[in-house]
Amino acid sequence: MARLNWRRHGNLAVLAALLAVLASRDPGVLSTSNITNVIGQAAVMGICAVGMTFVILTGGIDLSVGSIVALSGALGAWLNVHAGLPWQAAWASAILAGTACGLVSGLLVHWGRVPPFMATLAVMAAARGLTLLLTQGSPISGTSPAFNYAGWASLSGFPVSGMILLACATAAWVLLRFTPFGTGVYALGDNPEAARFAGIPTGRVTVSVYALSGSTAGLAGLMMVGRLWSAQPGIGMGLELDVIASVVLGGTSLFGGVGTIRGTLTGVLIMGFLDNGLRILGVSSYLQQVIKGMVFIGAVILDMYFKGAYRKDRSRDTP
Amino acid sequence: MEEPSRAESVAGEPRREGGGLALVVAAERLHENRPRATVHLVGTVWEEFNIRGAVMAAQYVGKGDQQAVRRVVKQSYSSSLMVACLATALVTLFNGAVIKLALGNAAGAEMISAARTYLMITCISYPFYCFYSNTTQVLRGVGEPRKAMYMSVLMNLSNFALSLLFIYGFRLGIQGAALASLLGRVIGTLLGLLLVSRTGICTRLSDFFTFKLDLATQKTMIRLGVPTGMQSFFFVGARLVMNRFILDNGGAMHLSANVVFTQILDLQCTGSTFVIGMAPAIMGMAKGRGDQEGMVRLMVGRSVDTLFPRETPTLGETVLEVEGLSRDGVLKDINFDVRKGEILGFSGLVGSGRSNVVRCLFGLEPFQKGTIRIKGREARIRRPSVALEKGLFLVPEDRKTQGLFLNRSVEDNVTVLQLLRRLYGLFLVKGGLRRREALRLTEELNVRFADLDHEVQSLSGGNQQKVVIAKGLSVTPEILILDEPTRGIDVGAKAEIHHLMNRLTHEGMAVIMVSSELPEVLGMSDRVAVMREGRIAAFFDKEEATSEKIMLAAAGGVEVGAP
Q1: DSSP 3-state percent helix, strand, coil across chain B (nearest 5)
Q2: Helix or strand holding residue B109 (H, E)
Q3: How many domains in chain B?
Q4: How many CB atoms lie within 10 A of CB A291?
Q5: Is residue B323 one of the residues assigned to a domain?
Q6: Is B550 exposed, middle or buried (0-12, 13-18, 19+ CB in 10 A)?
Q7: Higher-confidence residue: A18 or B165?
Q8: CB contact under 8 A, A190 and B407
Q9: Same domain assignment for residues B87 and B56
Q10: Residues B437 and B533 reside in one and the same domain
Q11: Beta pairing partners, B336
Q12: B57, B201: one domain
């Protein structure tokens, strides 16, 4: 009775369909160089999405990732260029800064009982402001090649950023699948009340997932700098939408408790190829935004559908 | 009543496989001149189909969601209707061919015309028949209406084939056989309708056909076994297999299952008389003339006094002492203790603070005053995780919102506490160990599920409750707190949980049970604490506790026997 589980495997079908459509228009889409290119481009968003998966699994949302990407990139670059720190130290501090932003969101959500949407919106604004303060509104360039290595280099044809994404995803998979923390994340997202009854430290889990999302965003920001060879204060605007879209496209429910890292990776690839394909097909960048918005809404509506929100009798499963 | 003893004797026997096959074989005996092999082959194939259908039915039996049930019934009914229309059309068009197929060329004109009539009526009466049979089997099915529908179609087809088989089998006495089956089916259907409309279960027949009955009524109908009892015996072969599976899957269907089972085994293929024969008995029960004890006995296959089978406990040392527990506005000066092997029942009206006491014990509610001592040592329980460490486990009042992760699998739910505490080596969870533990615990508690990986919301209420308890037992608590342990679950699972409580206390666990059900408190507790307005109004020992005394204390009549 193995029925195809659309919730879990539908995203693969979407990816395949997308690739088929794009390849029919331009076979070059499936060339190795283009695929590695897409992976390299999507890696930044993908790393954010891995962290975001944790947050969404607990039933929360993190809107601050785009700003944290900009902040950590700017901070890292500033430390490397103006303070003359070696790249390791600059990286570590920048990731810590990202984690701190996430921690603030988490504490606001847990202690302050602020809805995740509001808390992370505030952090988003604050982090963007801090970035502008730090950079005085102009890009910082001149970071050392070692600092930039992870962002642009590739090893035997495969981008290093893609490897880092895979490493992050593997770590996240292990964390979710095989550790008590992962159990707590799923449990909290599925039923917070039951999680409390099961003795799960719900507060600690909540704060941790936001901190985790912050730190992945911090890492992504540094790779963004490497990719562009400079830190742009305006980078990452609207990135949160892409990130959330790829997580939801990957089958993770916005209501929490359901979702996998594998799905998120698929979602990232879908968003990456969509981006890439639209560009190859010569769709104007304004229209691209419209299409992405529609894809996002489609994914959310599918999520609602799987949740049973459109059943006539709302006797169960409704949010 | 004779049925109970019979039911018991049957339940006690080793399972007899192949009820449907038995019929086929019996049919075969009537005409030795036919090659056995063919009959056996066909019989076995359909048997196989029926078992598949029954397994599916069993998986989905046992949920009480009204909307889902209605949906399933509608789907099932409409599918039956479709099959009936299709079959009628087919038979009308090709009846010659069908009869030729079944009887061969040797059939006489008389036999052919009888078979034709039989086929026609078979098809036309399908909607009625299906409503009683398949729909009721899936009436309590849930969630996946499509599967229920497939199943229904499958069952219909198999029944249709059984009919053909019987025409084939009874070719020597075809007129008599066809007539008997027609009469059996028509009378069964009419009696069923009559019964339902006469007993006040349903005021209007139109309600019955448009499925406007409420869930309670539908449940009553299933319990009474009206649907299953009303069928002509030709179809009982398939039903039998199904009933046996349902017999293993919850209490509600037991009456019909047991009765039909015994009857059919005795009667084999002597005719459809038993349909008519047992109608008065069912009618009597439907009208409420049958005594409750007898009903329960029929339903669960055992006597009612074993429903609360509290054994005499062997009490050990005191494990939990609560002194002066107070919570502003909710609890006032609660004192009690529990000993090893004891069940302490908490009774009282809703809102009297029973649940608050256990929530305080489990660290879910803060309290201002009072000490909790576990094994003589003071325990400061501020969080559930601390309570779990100290060897307490609370089976919460509402399993769906507080006890279970409904979207997670059975395995996840059972092992979640172990995942959080013990089932990991240095850092990582051991997957194989986890599955073994889940299997061990579910087996120990006799949880019935199709697959460890299925979502826990697909289980019946009783099995969900057992999953919650299994989760608790996974960390071997010393004090088990059960808040309304048997709310909303069927009689069979209830009894199982009571037996489990006996076993656990026998093994030295202390149990605190909060229950609104007075018979349960009286039957299962060794001592009863009655609460009123946040205080313990009275303690009763098992011997002195009566429902009057408890109600009096709970309602605030006289204060008796304060400790």
Answers
A1: 60, 10, 30
A2: helix B109-124
A3: 3
A4: 13
A5: yes
A6: buried
A7: A18
A8: yes
A9: yes
A10: no
A11: B322
A12: yes
The minimal CB distance from B427 to the residues A179, A196, A315 is found for A179
Q: How far is B480 from chain A (nearest CA, A)?
A: 14
CA distance B177 to B188: 16
Ramachandran region of residue B454, left (φ > 0), alpha (ψ -120 to 50) or beta? beta
Residues B272 and B329 reside in one and the same domain: no
Q: Please check whether residues B469 and B349 belong to one and the same domain.
A: no
pLDDT of residue B115: 60
Distance CA B136, CA B151 (A): 12
CB contact under 8 A, B420 and A190: no
Instruction: Give pLDDT tens digits for A184-195.
Output: 999 999 999 999
B330: Cβ contacts below 8 Å, ≥ 6 apart:
B353, B356, B365, B534
Q: Which residues of chain A make contact with B406, given a CB cutoff of 8 A?
A: 190-191
Domains of chain A: 28-305 (1.10.3470)
* CA dist., res. A15 & res. A44, Å (int): 19
Contact between A190 and B383 using a beta-carbon 8 Å cutoff: no
CA dist., res. B365 & res. B354, Å (int): 13
In chain A, which ranges are E strands? 140-141, 154-155, 158-159, 230-231
Query: Rounded CA gap, B391 and B387, in Å?
Result: 7
Q: Which residue among B304, B338, B355 closes a domain?
A: B304
Q: Is there a single domain that holds both residue B254 and residue B371?
A: no
Q: Which residues pair with B512 in a beta bridge?
A: B344, B481
B501 part of a folded domain: no
pLDDT of B246 above 80: no
* B100: CB partners within 8 A, 6+ apart: B107
Between CA B418 and CA B437 the distance in angstroms is: 9
* C-alpha dist (Å) from residue A180 to A175, A200, B272, B471: 8, 9, 61, 15
Lowest-pLDDT range of A150-159, B119-128, B486-495? B119-128
Q: Say what angle helices A32-57 and A65-81 make with each other, to 10 degrees.
A: 110
Query: Which structure tokens are listed for B180?
Result: 């008997």
The residue of chain A with its CA nearest to that of B65 is A315
Strands (E), B440-554: 479-483, 510-514, 527-532, 535-541
Lowest mean pLDDT among A187-191, B60-64, B181-185: B60-64
| Residue with token string 């009378």 | B187
**Both B68 and B120 in a single domain?**
yes
B469 and B523, same domain (yes or no): no
Q: Between A180, A190, A197, which is nearest B384 by CB?
A: A197
Those residues of chain A whose CB sits closer than 8 Å to some CB in chain B are: 174, 177-180, 183-184, 186-187, 190-191, 193-201, 257-258, 313, 315-316
- Cα–Cα distances (Å) from A78 to A55, B153, B203, in that order, read 29, 71, 82
Task: Pick the closest to residue B417 from B357, B485, B469, B479 (CA basis).
Answer: B469
| Residue B414 to residue B420: CA distance in whole angstroms | 12
Task: Give the range with max mean pLDDT: A69-78, A249-258, B1-10, B186-195.
Answer: A69-78
- Supply the CATH number for residue B374's domain: 3.40.50.300
More confident call, A62 vs B205: A62
pTM of the model: 0.65
Domain-embedded: residue B369: yes
B502 in a structural domain:
no
Enclosing domain of residue B405: 394-476
Residue A89 has pLDDT above 90, yes or no: yes
Record: contact B417-A199, CB cut-off 8 A: yes
Question: At which of B476, B496, B530 does a domain end?
Answer: B476
> What sign results for the dihedral spanned by CA atoms B149, B153, B156, B158?
negative
Cβ distance B408 to A193 less than 8 Å, yes or no, reads no
Supply the ipTM of this predicted assembly.
0.81
